[in-house]
Amino acid sequence: MKLIGSLTSPYVRKVRVVMAEKKLEYEFVVENVWAQDTSIQTHNPLGKVPCLLMDDNGSLFDSRVIVEYLDTLSPVGRLIPQPGRDRAATKCWEAIADGVLDAAVAINIETTKRPAELRSQDWIDRQHKKIAAALDSMNKSLDDQPFCMGVNFSLADIAVGCALGYLDLRFSDLNWRSQYGNLQRLDEKLQARPSFVSSLPPTQN
């Protein structure tokens, strides 16, 4: 398999962490989707990463789709529960963590890709409110549990860890640790895992 992505995309990192935890072999192909000569749309018509090229030359895109598929490839360390309430809860954790990413990436694009005279501070502030509300909700839901779903490490933790890592990468002045102690405790455990260490964006090394 080949994984097409960037070294700083948190969605790509989520897939890379899953592949490491599942002990799956793959080739990582770095792609800059903002470059004029990008070829990403050959495999994903939406022009986004991550994109997984499978051995039969088929492709999967969207991190949620990819990680669900990857979890079926190996019995090692199942990350998504079988259908039922726990599975739905795990996917909800992933959804809220991805919501943090969606808002954070939107802010980053607005402030780095859009001309200054066209930027909307009201819109940026709206995204920041989404991030704050999501962090508060996750912090309360985590409570004193060792992991998002209780005692077992799962996709929920991977999604949350990648979201928090992206906030550290792009919004170092946010200082979320001072407000969300439960998330800080979880993050310390996650960032020490080899799967997270090996997927750190270059500017965090």
UniProtKB/TrEMBL annotation:
Alphabetical keyword list: Transferase
Domain GST C-terminal residue range list: 83-205
Listed name of the protein: Glutathione S-transferase N-terminal domain-containing protein
GO biological process: glutathione metabolic process; L-phenylalanine catabolic process
Molecular function GO terms recorded: glutathione transferase activity; maleylacetoacetate isomerase activity
Domain GST N-terminal positions: 1-78
